[in-house]
Amino acid sequence: MASTSVASAQSARVSGVCSVSGRGDIAVARAASRASRRAPSPVSVSGAALRGHKSNRGASANDRHRASRAPSSRVVTRSIMEPETTSASTTFERSPEQVVASNGREVEQFALECCVKRQTSGERVPRPRVPEKMLDDAYERCNEVTSEYAKTFYLGTKLMTPEKQRAIWAIYVWCRRTDELVDGPNASHITPEALNQWEARLEAVFDGRPADVIDAALCDTVSRFPVDIQPFRDMVDGMRMDLVKPRYETFDELYEYCYRVAGTVGLMSMPIMGCDENFEGDLRKVYKAALSLGLANQLTNILRDVGEDVITRNRIYIPLEELRRFGIEESEVIKCSLVDAETGAVDPRWKEFMKFQIARAREVFAEAEAGVNCLHKDARWPVWSALDVYRNILDAIEANDYDNFTQRAYVPKLQKFLMLPAAYSKAQPAMTM
Question: Which residue ranges are recorded for the region named Disordered (predicted)?
């Protein structure tokens, strides 16, 4: 259930991908940028494959999704295990506009089914041919990055078994590197072609051919646990959305984005957590709860970071339709004028709007709770801890009088530790159905 990592992967959008990955991500960005200047954009998926195209409307949701992901070219990726040769890895050249036009609920359902099937079968990807010492160093680097940039998440991981800790750190760092492509210091160099290259690199990881040692940590993880590639692909699509969509008109639109950038992490992490050894229920229930936790965490991130997102990235994730319902104009959010610059007083309209948003986020957290105790006993306490701490960010927003323009809501470290006994108590009873 994901997410101890779940949207924590999105919680610290600051520069630093270079320190995570060395020069690999910069190389991807620059190579794609050069390619886009030298030649026209690569041919995209044909119009007939797009969702909603008249020739495709009669297909099932899964058929349409497979069509939209159909490989349109081959991209050469060099593996760290094969330094003298090159290997072809299929990538999917999807434009950001195609992603925005797709049906997010169908995409989510398709990924959920893929993950359930993978976990049920227990299928693994090939082990990377990397020396153990190199892997140990890669996992340690993932540990360092996670502890530095995702403190709430990291606290939860420290309650896991060593093998599960390492696996979750590897997933977190891949998510962070992916997020940094569009929000990090090199974001201005990122093109759709760069994201195509990044997805090609992802395909290579799941083919047992990591491009660098940090990728090798993820490759090793997915060889040990039945993790499916689909949510990783969907997260890359979330980055494609960020290239072209700085506003969301309705909550349905926002939900689609939240799935791709955070719900996906729930699907990625669920196989690491595992189910209780006596669990005999429907795996879909547990995966749906993981998705809810991802959504709840991402909604919390969005509410916490309203000011930061609009000031530093010109992005407004809260639905514009709902702003208007409370009598608030988009321009007021852009100007941050809903908090008086001199007195710090918060506009009553904004307070009411925030109360509505927080109430919805808490409802989604409640939906996530339904699956936590279905997890394996060594995962329940970490997930409850992360869930409770993250939910308390909503309390912190309230304590700041709903000012999320000039103040950043957070849970103090001491308070986090004081919450651990209650989380431990909640984690004791197992749910087997």
Answer: 32-96
**10 SS3 class:** helix
- Using CB atoms within 10 Å of the CB of residue 162, give its burial: 0 to 12 exposed, 13 to 18 middle, 19+ buried: exposed
| Residues facing residue 89 across a β-bridge | 75
Q: 124: which 2 tokens?
A: 């693994």
Q: Give domain status of residue 414, yes or no.
A: yes
Alpha carbon distance 62, 255 (integer Å): 19
Contacts of residues 145-148 at CB distance under 8 Å and 24 or more positions apart, as own/partner, are 145/16, 145/19, 145/20, 145/169, 145/172, 145/173, 145/176, 146/172, 146/173
Q: Is 330 exposed, middle or buried (0-12, 13-18, 19+ CB in 10 A)?
A: middle
From the list 175, 239, 400, the residue with the least C-alpha distance to 304 is 400
Helix, strand, coil fractions of the chain, as percent rounded to 5 = 65, 5, 35
Q: pLDDT tens digits for 199-215?
A: 999 999 999 999 999 99
Contact 190, 251 (CB under 8 A): no
Q: Supply the range of the domain harboring residue 236.
A: 8-42+79-427
DSSP string covering 302-316: HHHTHHHHHHHH--B
Would 70 be classed as within a structural domain? no
The 10s digit of each residue's pLDDT in 211-223 is 999 999 999 999 9
For the entire predicted model, the pTM comes to 0.80
Give a yes or no: residue 56 inside a domain.
Answer: no
Distance separating alpha carbons of residues 304 and 398, to the nearest angstrom: 10
Which CATH number does the domain housing residue 383 bear? 1.10.600.10
Residue 59, domain member (yes or no): no
The 10s digit of each residue's pLDDT in 367-382 is 999 999 999 999 999 9
Can you give the pLDDT at residue 184?
A: 87
DSSP, residue by residue, 210-240? -SSHHHHHHHHHHHHS---SHHHHHHHHHHH
Q: Which two tokens stand for residue 423?
A: 């989380």
Q: Which residues contact 88 (CB under 8 A, 6 or more apart)?
A: 74, 75, 76, 77
Q: Please give the pLDDT value at position 58.
A: 34
Say which DSSP state 275 is in: B
pLDDT reported for residue 257: 96
The residue among 297, 379, 365 whose CA lies nearest residue 8 is 297
pLDDT of 59: 39
Contact (CB, 8 A) for 181 and 33: no
What's the structural domain count of the chain? 1
- Which pLDDT value is given to residue 209? 92
